[in-house]
Amino acid sequence: MTLHEDLEAIYQDVIRRNPGEAEFHQAVKEVLGSLGPVVAKFPEFASERIIERICEPERQIIFRVPWQDDRGNVQINRGFRVEFNSALGPYKGGLRFHPSVYLGIIKFLGFEQIFKNSLTGMPIGGGKGGSDFDPKGRSDGEIMRFCQSFMTELYRHLGEYTDVPAGDIGVGGREIGYMFGQYKRITNRYEAGVLTGKALIIGGSKVRTEATGYGCTFFVNEMLRTREQSFEGKRVLVSGSGNVAIYTLEKVRQLGGKVVAMSDSGGVIYDANGIDLDLIKEIKEVERKRISVYAERCSSSKYLAHGNIWDIPCDVAMPSATQNEITGRDAETLVRNGCIAVGEGANMPTTPEGVEVFLQAGILYGPGKAANAGGVATSALEMQQNAQRDAWKFEETERRLQEIMRGIHETCVHAAEEFGTPGNLVNGANIAGFMKVAQAMLAQGLI
Ligand code: NDP
Ligand code: 2IT
Questions:
Q1: How close is the Cα of 420 to the center of ligand 2, in Å?
Q2: Under a CB-based contact definition with an 8 Å cutoff, are residues 168 and 128 in contact?
Q3: Which of 289, 359, 361, 374 has its CA 20 to 30 A from that of 191?
């Protein structure tokens, strides 16, 4: 992708100032790739150096997380919180616990989060955090001690009006609960709105657990509707088998589609009859086991160790595991096999080469910052309920989520059209997300 001349200079500066952070460079390049027509139309963004400011996090926190494992050994991990942009509201974004986490991952996620949160239309800024801690194989006690140590440093940077974390890979309701308990203990404040993704009993919102997967499915449904299509009878691939993947499966089924394959980092399960939702929930949410166990218990399914899920023919692909999981070659395979729509539940799951293949082929392509925004949008609904000391019903909350996803899709479609690339939702999402943040920054002066 070639960038507009001024944007290329900004991009080169980002590379120079952030060496070795490949994922962050990739995320920045993708957004800058959409902004050529915007800087041409709004010269004040250049004179006020809005884009350079957006590319520089407002604050970056890196800290030591010491904890004791079950054998009495001392363990040391590294914790991160990147408070990227607060033009639209308090920093908001998840925490990722995964051994691959380093500053470049947290910065790519935090950067994406700015535009995603802007697209939701809710008053939330962008941030992200996490640790290189690997939760796999750790006992409940170890997870709790790690979360408590992590929060013992992080708490001083948080607050319902300052910075509000939630979950991401490796962080779900259990971890949020342990962190919330430690925050309350240190601060002596029952400040429900300081974390989202809480269990219902401690101020969580109905539908937050389901929200990212449901939202992504709603988004794909909106895309399909533009071509007089629906999920009815469609074969769907959903990579991953975590929170986003499971609730994508649930909603796709409700809308008449059939998820024929899922995966984890070890392999792929395939079931032409459609994956059994209850069995997946039991194995992943209750027993916390690997997806290979599914094939042991379900005779109509096959386990493909180290298999590539994107080799399986499908109508719709919903990557819901991790970044760069669809390569250019995978994208070509999907298109060749007749895939008509891709909705990204994960953050940046498609490489730049893959994105190019989808756009060139003219298939429906919903980029992560639009398609997976339902999770953070429902987090913002959780913050609203906490502020009101209220708890809404499931149906009402889901209705709001669906409305928000419809709105995001419409916003992206309009922005893509207005700036000369109809149907290109990458440009639509980047431009619409950027415009609100840029205007809010201008309104607040040079800060
Ligand atoms: P979970 O931890 O619940 O599940 C992650 C799943 O992805 C697991 O099946 C995991 O397999 C797989 N996975 C993770 N890393 C890798 C890797 N490096 N290679 C192969 N497989 C991998 O996380 P979530 O479902 O919450 O998150 C999934 C994606 O969705 C992430 O990209 C996240 O950023 C994004 N997202 C999440 C939101 C949320 O609300 N939770 C909101 C918006 C986006 P294994 O167990 O083998 O590691
Ligand atoms: O990537 C994401 O949007 C999330 N992990 C959810 C963030 C949130 O604050 O709910």
A1: 30
A2: yes
A3: 374
